[in-house]
Write a structure and sequence with these properties.
22 helices; four-stranded mixed β-sheet; 478 residues; 7% strand; two-stranded antiparallel sheet; alpha+beta
C-alpha cells in the first residue's frame, strides 16, 4: 500500500469576483427604501467627504483645482473627475427639486416623517402580558418564580409544549405543585393560554364562556378529528343530535382562537414605503419616484477647499481622492438605482393599464424577461430591482413583483394572468351555495365556459394556494 502524504500545489485558474464597488451597487439596487436610507446613513458616518444638505440648499459650485505645483497625470485625471462630480451634483439637485404633488419637499416634511417613524410603538409580548398578570396574583415569591419558569416556556402561539415533569425537574419543584402553578397560569388572559394541545385550548375557551357542558364541548372532547374533516353527519349520528345543531356547534367552535398567543405577538406589521407612486392626472398615469426618504448628498465644502490649497500634503490628497471617488460612486449608484426602478415601473404601468383602471380581474400576464428586453436590462437586474419594492396605485399598494405573473390562454387566443384566474376561483367560492359548494370539476366547467383553458389539477393547485378547503369541507347544512 503506497504511503499517504500531504503536499501543497499551485493552480492557476480564472474566476469571476465582484469588485467591492459593484457589490455595493447591487446591494443598493436590491435594498428597499428604508434599508437604502440606512445604507446611506452608514456611508455618511464613515466617509467624511460626504455630507447631507436640505433640498433648499443651493449647491456649492466646484472650481477646477489649480495649484502652483506640477501635477502628475493622476492628479490631472482627478481634476476631470472633480469637474464631472460638480455636474453630477447639479443633476442630483435637479433630480430632487422635481415637484412632487406640485410642491417641493421641505425640512418640515422630513420632521413630520421622522415623527411618524418615532411614534410607532412596540406591542406588548405574550410573555410580558402573562408576567404582568403573574405579578398581580397572591402567590408567594417562590411560587411566583415557578410561574415565571412556566411563562418562559410558553410558545408565541400560547401553548406549553414542554412537559410539566421536565419543568418541575428544571425548577427543582414537586410535579404536583408545578401542576398547581400551571393551573393558575392557565386561568390568565388570553383564554386557552398554557394549553398542552388544541383540544385542551378549545375546552378552556368553552369553559370560560360557560359552555363546558354544551354540544360544542362534547364535539371537541371526542370528535375533534372528525370535525376537522367536516364529517358532521357522522358526528350527528354518533352523538344522536340533529345535523343542524352539530353544524351550529361547529360554526361556534370555528369562532374560537386556536392560537391565543398570536394576539400578543411581538412581531409588528412591517412599515412599507412605496418606491413608486402611480397617479392618474388628466387621463394619463404619471409615475413618481418616492424620494422623500433619501438624504440629499454632496461633497463636503471643507474637503473641496483642501484640494485647492497648495500646502495640502500628498498623503492627505490621496486620502481625499479615495474618499471623494467613493462618494461619487455612491451618488451615481443611487441615481442609477432610481432610474432603473423608474424604467421598470414605466413598463409595468404601460402593460397593466387595464389593471390600474379595473382591478385584479384585468391583470395581464407579464414576465421579467419581457420587461428586461424592453428596458434594455438583464433579467437578473430586473429581479433585483423589484425585490422588496412596493408600488402605490389607484388599486392599492402592491409589491412590484406582484405584477409579474405567467398566463393562461383563452379560446380567442388571448392570454390572462394566473392571478386573474385565482381571483375568479375565489369569487366563485365566495358566491357559491353553502349547502351545495362547487367541486373542482364544476369550477373547471365554469371557467371553460368563460373561455379559459385550464386543467383540473391547476384548479386544485390554485384553490390550495388560496387556502380554500375542498367542497366537502365547505358544505353547510340547514
Amino acid at each position: 500500500m503506497p504511503a499517504q502524504s500531504m503536499q501543497l500545489s499551485q493552480q492557476q485558474r480564472q474566476i469571476m469576483v465582484l469588485a467591492p464597488q459593484l457589490r455595493q451597487s447591487l446591494e443598493m439596487l436590491q435594498a428597499p427604501a428604508l434599508e437604502l436610507r440606512a445604507m446611506i446613513r452608514a456611508e455618511l458616518d464613515q466617509n467624511p467627504t460626504l455630507e447631507e444638505v436640505s433640498v433648499e440648499t443651493t449647491p456649492i459650485e466646484v472650481e477646477p483645482t489649480v495649484t502652483k505645483e506640477s501635477e502628475d497625470q493622476k492628479s490631472l485625471d482627478f481634476r476631470k473627475e472633480f469637474e464631472i462630480l460638480a455636474r453630477l451634483d447639479d443633476e442630483w439637485k435637479d433630480y430632487f427639486f422635481q415637484e412632487k404633488e406640485n410642491r417641493p419637499y421641505t425640512s418640515a416634511d422630513d420632521e413630520r416623517h421622522n415623527f411618524l417613524i418615532d411614534s410607532i410603538t412596540q406591542k406588548e409580548s405574550l410573555q410580558e402580558h402573562l408576567l404582568r398578570q403573574l405579578a398581580m396574583t397572591e402567590l408567594d415569591p417562590a411560587d411566583r418564580a415557578l410561574g415565571e419558569v412556566i411563562v418562559g416556556s410558553i410558545t408565541d402561539d400560547g401553548y406549553l409544549t414542554t412537559g410539566i415533569e421536565e419543568l418541575a425537574a428544571t425548577a427543582g419543584a414537586d410535579v404536583a405543585h408545578m401542576q398547581d402553578i400551571l393551573t393558575v397560569v392557565q386561568d390568565f388572559d388570553p383564554p386557552g393560554v398554557g394549553s398542552r394541545d388544541l383540544r385542551e385550548c378549545l375546552l378552556f375557551q368553552l369553559e370560560r364562556l360557560g359552555k363546558h357542558d354544551s354540544l360544542a364541548a362534547r364535539i371537541v372532547m371526542t370528535h375533534l378529528e372528525r370535525l376537522a374533516a367536516r364529517k358532521l353527519q357522522d358526528i350527528a349520528r354518533i352523538l344522536k343530535a340533529p345535523v343542524e345543531e352539530v353544524e351550529s356547534a361547529a360554526n361556534f367552535i370555528a369562532t374560537l382562537n386556536p392560537k391565543p398567543g398570536r394576539a400578543y405577538s411581538a412581531e409588528s406589521s412591517p412599515y412599507v414605503t412605496p418606491e413608486v407612486v402611480v397617479k392618474k392626472v388628466d387621463g394619463q398615469y404619471l409615475i413618481l419616484m418616492n424620494d422623500d426618504d433619501l438624504p440629499r448628498l454632496r461633497i463636503s465644502k471643507y474637503y473641496r477647499s483642501l484640494m485647492n490649497e497648495t500646502d495640502t500634503g500628498k498623503e492627505v490628497r490621496d486620502y481625499i481622492q479615495e474618499r471623494v471617488r467613493s462618494s461619487a460612486f455612491l451618488i451615481r449608484s443611487i441615481h442609477q438605482r432610481q432610474n432603473t426602478i423608474y424604467r421598470i415601473a414605466s413598463e409595468i404601468v404601460r402593460v397593466q393599464t387595464d389593471f390600474l383602471e379595473n382591478g385584479v380581474s384585468h391583470l395581464k400576464p407579464l414576465t421579467m424577461a419581457e420587461v428586461a428586453g424592453v428596458v434594455g436590462l438583464h433579467e437578473t437586474t430586473v429581479s433585483r430591482a423589484v425585490a422588496g419594492k412596493h408600488m402605490q396605485t389607484p388599486q392599492g399598494v402592491f409589491e412590484m413583483k406582484y405584477f409579474f405573473t405567467p398566463g393562461l390562454r383563452t379560446d380567442d387566443g388571448s392570454v390572462v394572468s394566473n392571478k386573474t384566474v385565482k381571483d375568479a376561483i375565489d369569487t366563485l367560492v365566495r358566491d357559491e351555495d353553502p349547502a351545495n359548494p362547487l367541486s373542482d370539476q364544476e369550477i373547471l366547467e365554469i371557467l371553460t365556459k368563460r373561455g379559459i383553458q385550464i386543467a383540473r389539477r391547476t384548479v386544485a393547485k390554485y384553490r390550495i394556494a388560496l387556502k380554500i378547503a375542498p367542497s366537502h369541507m365547505r358544505r353547510r347544512y340547514g
